[in-house]
Amino acid sequence: MDFREELSKRILIGDGAMGTLLYSTGIDHCFEEINIISPEKIELIHKTYVSSGSDIIQTNTYGANYYKLKRYGIEDEVQQINRQGVKIARKAAKEKAFVFGTIGASRGLRKNDLTLSDIKRQFREQLYALLLEEPDGILLETYYDFEEIETVLSIVKEESNLPIIANISLHDMKYLQNGMHVSDALSRLEQFDIEAIGLNCRLGPHHMIRSLEEVPIPEKSVLSVYPNASLPDFLDGKLIYEPNTEYFANSAIQLVEQGVRIIGGCCGTTPHHIAAVKKALAGKNPVVQKIVKPRKIEIYHSSIKDYSPSILKKGNLERTILVELDPPKKLGTDEFLQGAKELISAGADTLTLADNSLASPRICNVSLASILQEKVKIKPIVHLTCRDRNLIGLQSHLMGLHTLGLNEVLAVTGDPSKIGDFPGATSVYDLSSFDLIGLIKQFNEGRSYSGQSLGQKTNFHVAAAFNPNVKYLHKAIERLERKIACGADSFITQPIFSIHQLEELHEATRHINVPIYIGIMPLTSYKNAEFLHHEVPGIQLTDQVRNAMFSAGDNRVQAEIEGLAIAKELIDAVLDKWNGIYLITPFMRYKMTANLTQYIREKDKLGLKGEPRYASKLT
Predict the structure, then answer these.
(1) With the C-alpha atoms ordered 398, 368, 417, 483, is the resulting torsion angle positive or negative?
(2) What top-level class would CATH report for the domain 20-223?
(3) What is the pLDDT of residues 548-588, one digit of tens each?
(4) pLDDT tops 50 at residue 614
């Protein structure tokens, strides 16, 4: 049989799920590894789909790439697993069905975990392994990231003349996660001149039918759809799909009416679903014309908030002082509010509020930010970590911040839970800090992560963390530049304790045109200095500074005087080079950072730079 000829004449039936079938039998490790440890299990599933009516079966190689196999310690088995996958499928098909080598997407929610170079490298390795066994075609499936599927499609077109089916996945009905409408996405895929373009996974038949109502029948390609059986239920620790074969078959008829020419199933579908589809579509011819439903144009309302210019963007133009004041670990806010008022009176432009710093629970920083906005009349900068909230919670949190009129945020990864008061708590990290910055900027365009309209455009100004306390500064600069590419508006550094380091940092960041706020934290005691030096990653103190704090002894007043003197010398070194200063309040000792704030304002007023008191000690 010739695939292209058959596709031009009739509707072709794909197969159904492989992974969820294996999962339902108790297999919960690497599904692709079954190709080499129990090939008979995979062959039986393939045979069952062929006997149920599948015209196309996919190899069990969806995640058989270096990146995913590495999770199981079998990254060196890429070629064997992929080649074996084609052999098993070919043996089961016995020329009754076409065998397509399947390659799944690599990028998930954390888009920045894999660069395009990483993707290209591992994709070529997997593709070459499949091509060695001469499949009838290549099937690309479950691509949420449109940049990724365009990248890998170009590679397949370069390396092979085989038929190609390319299926994207929608985060929400009609829209990709980047906000692109499904019609626009499929139109761009069609320009690759491939056999089939379409959708798979994530959504069930209903939402895929609704999505395709706004998609015209392609001129060069045909439409391919592999829906999930339904929305899954979670029962006794397992995902369960309803055995709705009759409904699935009726939906297949509606998909044909939308112009679909290849119909299979994804998660939760079984040979029973495929048999029902085969029966329902018997004798039906492909639809070549349809009435396309007009696309609804989203209208974004103006924000209900009247935002003032961003404090974060001032740091390149005029002296701006940010002061971090941690939310309390115990209930009660009197001391916190007193400190906030004193810091603002001393000359701080605003306060920043950490998000459960050091992975320890504190009063919600959004609650305190709202109180500060009302009682102290400032717009605080709210830290937002990737640690404590999944993708749903992060989006809800951002919507809440917008609703409260809090549009200054610092996007950070967050300290891992194991270092905090509850080391057994789960660290979520659905997104990296890069992804979180990108998500916030997407909110500014009026789109959620799934691409759906938010009804309004937010107006967040995003600061990002920058740690220059590393062995190789150029690596930290590269990371900073990546964050700028994701949309970061400004940067706040970790505390720095060396004048020499400040000079190196200034030279290394001359080309950076976004504000950088240099972190200065006064030391409170010798024990505090030793803890920071030895136990806190990314912070190193010079021997001279540690000796100076040691000389202060156990006297709290004398230690604070010494800590302030060192901090002021560092400030002197900063004033001549940066306009943005970030003062970090240690242990709620806000009088120390108020003292430093006044020192900066007095220096500016008098136009003085100051003579370093400990020049030899801080270099």
Answers:
(1) positive
(2) alpha beta
(3) 999 988 899 999 999 999 999 999 999 989 999 999 999 99
(4) no
Report pLDDT for 137.
98
Domains 20-223 and 312-524+567-618 share a fold: yes
Residue 316 backbone zone (phi > 0: left; psi -120 to 50: alpha; other: beta): alpha
User: Which pTM does this prediction carry?
Assistant: 0.80
Tokens standing for 316? 């390149």
Q: Contact at 8 Å (CB) between 335 and 588?
A: yes
> In 3-state terms, what secondary structure has residue 239?
strand
Cross-strand partners of 345: none
Determine which of 168-182, 208-222, 225-239, 566-580 has the lowest per-residue pLDDT on average: 225-239
Task: Report the C-alpha gap between 361 and 204 in whole angstroms.
Answer: 39
Instruction: Count Cβ atoms within 10 A of the Cβ of residue 428 and give its class: 0-12 exposed, 13-18 middle, 19 or more buried.
Output: middle
Give the pLDDT confidence of 384-434 residue by residue, as tens digits: 999 999 999 999 999 999 999 999 999 999 988 888 889 889 999 999 999
Q: Which overall architecture, per CATH, does domain 312-524+567-618 show?
A: Alpha-Beta Barrel (3.20)
DSSP string, 551-619: HTTT-HHHHHHHHHHHHHHHHHHHHTT-SEEEEE-STT-HHHHHHHHHHHHHHHHHT-----TTHHHH-
The full set of domain ranges for the chain reads 20-223, 312-524+567-618
Q: Name beta bridge partners: 164.
A: 138
Q: What are 229-251's pLDDT values in tens digits?
A: 886 666 665 666 667 899 999 99
Alpha carbon distance 356, 365 (integer Å): 8
Task: Indicate the residue type of 382.
Answer: V
Residue found under tokens 């909230």: 389
